[in-house]
Amino acid sequence: MTSTVPEPTTTATATTGPVASSLTFRPGRWIDGWNAEDPQQWDQQGAAIAQRNLRWSIFAEFLGFVVWQLWSIVVVALPTAGFHFTTGQTFWLISMPSLVGATLRFPYTFMVPRVGGRNWTMISAALLLIPAIGLALCVANPETPFGVMLLVAALAGLGGGNFASSMANITYFYPQRKKGWALGLNAAGGNLGAAVAQFAVPIVITIGAGATLQLPLAGLVWVPLILVAIVGAGLRMNNLTNARADVKASLAALRAPELWLMALLYIGTFGSFIGFSGVFPKLIADQFPGFSAFPVAGATVSLAFLGALVGSLARPFGGRLADRFGGSVITMAAFIVMALGALAVMVTLPLDNFWLFLVFFLVLFIASGAGNGATYRMIPTLFALRSGATDGHSTAGDISAQRTAAAALGIVSAFGAYGGFVIPQVLSLSKTSTGGYVTGLGWFVAAYVVFLAITVGVAIHGRRRGVRI
């Protein structure tokens, strides 16, 4: 049986006229007739439903990022716990979750149209239990072989896949004019998982531990929250019937040069954020061991979480600025600041000054976070223009264009996440071949200059068409 009245849990706004496009609510929390671009539907019912789905999407994605980043924190504590791995092996444990997570983003992108956003949020959250519990079992025994450790670290990539499906799902819930802010919040909430994990895990594994570390708690502490996310998504989220698989639109996204262009730029912004988030604890431990951990009330706190924190908080503001001024303008500014930030770290690193190192790296994180939101905002704009919309910045185009853009969001996010693998491997190569990280940082500066030139080209193309991109 179907119904065209609002869900009991949704409060409809009082109106003076009929809803322009009525919503039909079916069993399994499916919604028919969703049209975020209809202002009456949005004001009367849509906004409340979208905001509720966004909240639970953020929470589930947050936990995905937590699990995804656990190994970047745990590896710093492995020597103290009795594990003995080489520099190369340590960087593989840091980068393997990003490699797997980036690859999983491709299938995850298409799971929302196949099974529904609410349903897939429940499934993907439940899968996080595997790497969380697996990590606890591995680090409990210093005799665990490196191959087993690497396999379990790879399973943490399940958390990285969540981002693609979450973003593809939320893009259906919001009108084009609000996509930058909504996608920015959704992404920032997830990105914050990296910061929270890097702040909380050192405390959890050291508090009251005395001379030994409680490393298994790094994974086990998140299990109750994962269970809450599963139940909450089941009770409060929705599936949209218009978010259906469109194979033709997905293939069109893969054939579009805009997709590959944005994938390259997103490697520069999000790849930098997730890559540097993963290696930041290791960089601090290697370069400034005296500042790697601070004793506080019987526990240990690391300042490495600040990088992921400021980058996460900057992301929605990058999206909001992109809503107002266009994504290409903000992305250009981000790449300029990122290049200057990395260059400043290179210049000051030989000074052996931790606070200069921290400040300049935080500048790099802030710029990459804002760039994440701005670059991501460019994707629906470019695909709306490709569909024939006269102003892709404020018009979403037809439903086929929206589906193509949703597929592109997930695919681009997958390519961007490969930066989380590339950056640790580049820094590992720099460390093992030169004994330091300056050379690796120089390669990143050069890459940001190239990304900046590409973004300038996109902006010029938009200006020639008389639109903001």
Question: What do you see in this structure?
Answer:
The protein is mainly α. It contains 18 helices and five strands. Mean pLDDT is 86; it is low at 1-20. The chain has helices spanning 39-77, 87-109, 111-115, 117-127, 129-139, 146-155, 157-173, 179-206, 217-220, 223-236, 247-255, 257-287, 305-325, 327-348, 354-386, 399-417, 419-434, 438-464; strands spanning 24-26, 30-32, 239-240, 294-296, 299-301. It is globular, with a radius of gyration of 22 Å. It is 72% helix and 3% strand. The chain starts with 23 loop residues before the first strand and ends in a 5-residue tail after the last helix. Strand 4 (294-296) and strand 5 (299-301) form a beta hairpin. It has a single domain, classed as Up-down Bundle (Growth Hormone, Chain: A). Strands 1-2-3 form a three-stranded mixed β-sheet. It has a two-stranded antiparallel ribbon with strand order 4-5. Helix 2 (87-109) packs parallel to helix 6 (146-155) and helix 15 (354-386) packs antiparallel against helix 16 (399-417).
Please state the average pLDDT score: 86
The residue fraction in helices comes out at over 70%
| Envelope shape | globular
Counted beta strands: 5
Q: CATH homologous superfamily name? A: MFS general substrate transporter like domains
Question: Main beta sheet: strand number and arrangement?
Answer: 3 strands, mixed
Beta-strand content: under 5%
What is the count of DSSP helices, taking H or I runs of 4+ residues? 18
Question: How far is the N terminus from the C terminus?
Answer: 44 Å
Indicate the CATH class. Mainly Alpha
| Count of structural domains | 1
Helix-strand pattern, N to C? EEHHHHHHHHHHEHHEEHHHHHH
Instruction: Determine the CATH topology.
Output: Growth Hormone, Chain: A
- CATH level-two architecture: Up-down Bundle
> In which order are the strands of the major sheet placed?
1-2-3
Low-confidence stretches: 1-20
Assign the structural class, choosing from mainly alpha, mainly beta, alpha/beta, alpha+beta, or little secondary structure. mainly alpha
